[in-house]
Amino acid sequence: MRSREKELQGGIDVDVTPGEPNPRVLRPRHFDIRWEHVETLPAHLLLGFSVAVYEGDDPNNTDTYLLEPVRVGPSERRAVVSLRLASTVEVKCAVQALYSNGTQSDWRVLGGAVVADPDMVKLATANLKNVPAAAAQEASRNAVGAFTESFERSPFDLGNWERNPLLPPPAASLVSGQGYSGGNALRCTNAVWIYSTVKLPYDPSKLYRLRCRVRQFQEPTSGGKAVYCGLVGWAADGVTMVNAAGLNDLGSQHYYCISGAVLPASTGYSEFAGWVKGLSANVTENWPSQDPRNPRPMHQATRYVSLVLIANLDAGNGVTDFDSAVVDVFDESATPRVYTALNPDGSISYNVGISDGSGAPRTIAKGRQAQLAAHGAYVAFNPPFQNTPMVLLRGGLTHEPRAKWGATGSGSETGTYNAALPTYDDTQAIMNGGSGFTLRARLRQRGGIVTARTNNPASSANLATGIGSTVEVVLSNAPATNDQYALRFTATIYLLTPPRTGEMGAGGSWEPGSAQGSIVVALDSLDVGQSWVERATTTLWANSNNNTVNWVQSVNTHIGEVLTAAAPGLGAADRLRLRIKSVSVPPGSNHPTAHVWHSSVDAGAGVTYSTSTDQYASKTPDVGDMLYWEALDA
Prior knowledge:
Helices cover 3% and strands 47% of the residues. The chain contains 2 helices and 40 strands.
């Protein structure tokens, strides 16, 4: 039931003189607050309003509030609150504008004081004008939304956009009822290349996110249909363009949202995102990064940025619809902030480091870290692990029927899915020791014959003895399918075990002597000309009991242990090695040993893998697609 209908049923005596703002006398215990508001600032900054009812003259003094502030949306102009009054009081009402970046305007008092008692409440009315310009400017500078183009102005104003002078005037117009967010879309017929005249000051210390939603509405019958979205760099004079090479040229700009995407008309709207931060003298990758921890830089001469949209390149006659293009900026700082360390529930958030006070991060011997990541992202553990942890992965696509297959599974390839072939999961963490890993999240279809490969160490009598010792194996047929290799070995741990204690014989009791120990064995890879990289580790344990009266050097052997890891980028003549990384045994124990298998003396080869010609598709091809990873070292 509407509030006014409630008032009529409550038997309200309305006392109003036409043309004068006389109070209304309301017998229900409602304080009815209304105001007018004219929003001439960027509308996307306004999150809503907070309404306070209080005693006295200071709306910032929460001790004088008669109830918790009421929250209303940006389009609402009325709030009705119920007061529970024990005696007659004089109250005021104030409204505060709230912004999407967490900032607030000053309180704006509505009308004057009114007397409220348990039986009678009066109505306060006042006009709420814009917040002061300085406050609005501050909100704009720190707001999450820096620029939004949703193509809602009709007719579309190309006066806010410039075209590439090398192309004919763009055939770009608004079409209603075709948008995804909102009703309109920008329809681009034939090749269109435009950039916004709104230049945003670029702050390299902040993190920017670019978002664009686009579809291919009609396939071209000639020419291309590539889509681009990114940022045009501008020099300090606001006139000279700065592309990825630092040149005054509209071409080769910073295409950090979409770079040459080819969209089938059958898929409808797709949303893309990319992350930007910092400056660089050498921008070598002017395509998107989907990892906010690894954003792309603008060229070092950049001081302003503006959006650029390209459709149907090169010289295509198709039709492309842009639904929206957005630049978001996040409040970043080179100095870590305390408030980023804790989650709302009080737990420590991801990526909070620890140190010994000197600034150097500490490694953790045991522990757990978890987060989300997309295919190809590098995940840096913070703090790093002492040893290579076990990484568990789950999520992502399990089937990809679209034309997104290719040699790498980047997500932007256009090869077709082969329904006649089985699809395999190719999900793995390509480890960089305890520092982090690169996430590989792909689907795989085998192409051609799969061949099993084996390699052995140079000597069948190989033996690594003690901490840091190694045994190497040359890979003669690398790279492996999925870059996956398995190394088999036998390890021996020696434990110097003390004699038994206590007395033998009738009525006597004794305890055997005991000892425990362990070794950590690592699998490393070497791309010749580079450095060795730790790919996996395993911990082997040993226990011994001694029932004699003498010290005993017990022998504990682990036969046929397997270390499996992904090692990308290897080729013929590159190497794997086994390494004894650390040892924990009683003093006086012999050095542990490790022997890599050799086909001539053991039950199999030292290294096994397979080779084939496959095609791949990303398990995270679209915006929002992520895998959950969990790193454990127990």
